Amino acid sequence: MNSIVDVFATPYEYWRYRHVPFDEAIKNPDPNARPFLKEKDKLIRTVTCHREAAEHILLQRADALLESHIEAALTVSNVYQRWLREEPLEDPKAFLDYQIKCPHHDKAAVDDLIDQHGVTLADGQYLFHCGSWSSYSDTLTTDRPFSTSFCPQVALRNGEHKGKSYDAGKVELFVIRTTNPVTKAYVSRCTGEQGHEKEVLFASGASLRQVRKTMVNEIKATKQENGREVSRMVPAYVIEIELS
Asked: How many helices (H) and strands (E) does the chain have?
C-alpha cells in the first residue's frame, strides 16, 4: 500500500544551548557528556510539520541538527527504504550527470531514467524546493526535471547558489504537497558525494499550483560580482504548492 514519508512524525526541537563552566562540567556523572561543556538551556521552537520547518529555516538560515533529524527519519522509514529497493542499487549515470552538471545535462536522458526507475509518490507527500514563482499565474507545468528535497535547508542553499536569490530580489521557499500525483519521481539515496541533497527528482511535465504565499522575514542575499561579494536584504516567503 502506498504511503508517505513524514520526517516530522517525531517533532524536531530547536534548543538554545548554554556553555557549561569547566568546574561544573567535571561534576557531571556521565563522562561522555564532559568534553562538550554545553547543555540544553531553553526550547526555542518545536517543528511539527513541513510548513513550520520552512519558516524555521528562513528564520535561522542554518541548522545542522535539523538536517540530522531528517536524515535519521529517512533511515528508519520503511516507505523510503521501499522506494530505494524499487530503484537501482547505485544511482544511474544520467542522474549523477544531472546532479553534477545541472543545468547543462541531458534532459531527455533524465526523463527516460525517471520513467524507467521512478516511483509515483502517495497523495500528501511533502517536499521542499527553493526558486522563483511567476507573479502572473497560480499554475505552471514544468518543462524540465524538477528537483525537490526532504530538507528545507538543502532547498534554501540551492535557491541561494551563485547569487540566484540576490538576482531575483527575493527568496521563495516552496512547501510542496503531492495531490493526486501522476508524475513519476526518482528518489536519491542519502549516501555518496551528493547524498546530502536528500533529493527527489520529478519528471518534466509536473503540474504545480500555488495555494498560499506568506512573507516570513527579510534575509541577506549575497552574490560574487567583479571579484567581490555584494549583498542586499530581500523578502523571504514560504509558498505552499500542490504538485500532481
From this structure: 8, 10
What is the distance between the alpha carbons of residues 82 and 209, in angstroms, rounded to a whole number?
28
CA 21 to chain centre: 36
Cα separations (Å) of 70 from 7, 65, 188, 221, 225?
Answer: 6, 9, 14, 25, 34
pLDDT one-digit tens code per residue, 15-52: 998 887 777 666 666 666 555 677 788 999 999 999 99
Name 220's bridge partners.
233
Q: Distance between CA 244 and CA 212 in Å, rounded? A: 17
Exposure b/e, 115-140, CB count within 10 A at least 16 = b? eebbbebeeebbbbbbbebeeeeeee
Which residues sit opposite 14 in a β-bridge? 45
Residue 219 has pLDDT above 60, yes or no: yes
Among 198, 173, 196, CA closest to 186: 198
Question: Exposed, middle or buried: residue 153 (CB in 10 Å: 0-12, 13-18, 19+)?
Answer: buried
* Torsion (CA) 165, 167, 170, 172 in degrees, nearest 10: -50
pLDDT tens digits, one per residue of 96-129: 788 777 766 778 988 998 999 999 999 999 999 9
d(CA 202, CA 145): 6
Rounded to two decimals, the pTM is: 0.90
